[in-house]
Design goal:
Among the domains are: 87 residues, PDZ domain (Pdz3 Domain); 159 residues, 2-enoyl-CoA Hydratase, Chain A, domain 1. The protein is 31% helix and 22% strand. It has 11 helices and 19 strands. The protein is globular.
């Protein structure tokens, strides 16, 4: 490469590195940066030499745009698993994803040791129905090995026309050999908040992901549950299992629904604009009724913020298994080309100063991942009701609901043991409050 051309290229790189950045947290906003830095001339000289050799000597011709985009992706992938370059299509899909409707399989993924790792399958999606689990390592997409692909490349392969199939080869902890799972692509419509009464006194709210309207939807769900309950809600189970996170502002709003004062979360980073603090407002939507939060290894990011805040303020009992441990803040930095950088700019800290990163939230009560099944016994003990000529109980008509309720709870234990235990915990809290 001629010296003059190299100097021009160095100048262009300097201009690229000095572009105006934008910073956002939960929303997209722009700001100018005026921090000065010196260019590493020797390293950039090496870069231009490699660029020239690829242009001249590589077996096939590669256009400049592809080479430079690949260089950017490589630069970001060397930082951490969550920093990445978003081309215009990827940036657009990220924005759409925060509204709750997007195309694909329905899994939140990251990179680990060169493979795609499932952070969490999303409720009511093809991936969840096909049996994908948090922690699965995807090693092959149809016939394409994942090793060597960027996360962006892998995601592009997993996307496709709704109704089309893809075969994922996965490695799962505890499995003797790799598993092949066929998933039919679909348009993903995520309902962020789901709610129902578990009985007349205790409510259940499931948050599948944190979107821009999750906080508002939660408050509406709580209002509905209060109306459906008998004499008001006496307790709530907040289910954050397999919730991969989402918008920070939504996590703050959800936490604030149960807190009346103090810090919810704060962030620390090199740039002063990445140092943020979020505090609760004086309004507890449950009027201090007890809360049990269910978490597991698929609970990440915003889910961990909520669990950590409620745990530090002793506002809820956290049950389940240790969370994922994603305690870093990714800021979207829009670029002039309609592309963007998703760059890790800070770490999350709980109100008591605990870093979530690579540690996660440890529950107050740990529950093993198991399934309970009813054991039928051959011998049936004789009861008063079995004796000939026994007196009737004397119940009024319409009072025979006990057996139905018991059957429903046994079904809950078989279907979702962790939820069953959370409900028992709420009942124990209520009973303890009645004992003087």
């Amino acid at each position: 490469m001629k010296p003059t051309l190299r100097n021009i290229f160095l100048l262009s790189i300097g201009l690229v590195l000095g572009v105006t950045l934008a910073i956002a947290q939960g929303v997209f906003a722009e700001r100018n940066t005026h921090s000065s830095f010196s260019l590493p001339v020797d390293e950039l000289r090496t870069f231009t030499e490699v660029f020239a050799k690829i242009k001249n000597d590589y077996v096939e011709s590669v256009d400049d745009k592809t080479l430079l985009e690949n260089a950017i992706r490589g630069m970001l992938s060397g930082l951490d698993p969550h920093s990445t370059y978003l081309d215009p299509d990827g940036y657009k899909e990220l924005q759409v994803g925060t509204t709750g409707r997007f195309g694909g399989l329905g899994i939140e993924v990251g990179m680990e040791d060169g493979f795609v790792k499932v952070i969490s399958p999303i409720d009511d999606t093809p991936a969840k129905r096909a049996g994908m689990m948090a922690g699965d390592l995807i090693v092959r997409l149809d016939d394409t090995p994942v090793k060597g692909l960027t996360l962006s490349d892998a995601v592009k392969i997993m996307r496709g026309k709704p109704g089309s199939d893809i075969i994922l080869t996965i490695v799962r902890e505890g499995a003797d050999k790799p598993l092949k799972i066929t998933i039919t692509r679909d348009v993903i419509r995520v309902q962020s908040v789901k709610a129902r009464m578990l009985d007349e006194q205790f409510g259940y709210v499931r948050i599948t992901s944190f979107q821009s309207k999750t906080g508002e939807n939660l408050l509406n769900a709580l209002d509905t549950l209060k109306k459906e309950s008998k004499d008001g809600l006496k307790g709530l189970i907040l289910d954050l299992r397999n919730n991969p996170g989402g918008v920070l502002s939504a996590a703050v709003e959800v936490s604030d629904a149960f807190l009346t004062k103090g810090l919810i979360v704060y962030t620390e980073g090199r740039d002063k604009e990445s140092r943020l603090k979020f505090s609760a407002t004086p309004n507890d939507s449950l009027d201090k009724a007890p809360v049990v939060v269910l978490v597991n290894g698929g609970s990440a990011s915003a889910s961990e913020i909520v669990a950590g805040a409620l745990q530090d303020h002793s506002r809820a009992i956290i049950m389940g298994s240790k969370t994922f441990g994603k305690g870093s803040v990714q800021t979207i930095l829009p670029m002039n080309s309609n592309a963007a950088l998703k760059l890790t700019t800070a770490r999350y800290y709980t109100p008591k100063g605990r870093s979530i990163q690579a540690e996660g939230i440890v529950p107050h009560i740990e529950l093993a991942r198991l399934k309970v099944s009813t054991v039928e016994t051959e011998f049936k003990r004789i009861k008063e009701a079995d004796l000939s000529g026994h007196l009737e109980n004397g119940k009024a008509e319409g009072e025979k609901k006990g057996d139905d309720k018991k059957a429903e709870e046994e079904n809950l234990a078989d279907k979702d043991y962790h939820l069953y235990e959370a409900l028992n915990t709420l009942r124990a809290i209520q009973i303890s409050s009645l004992i003087k």
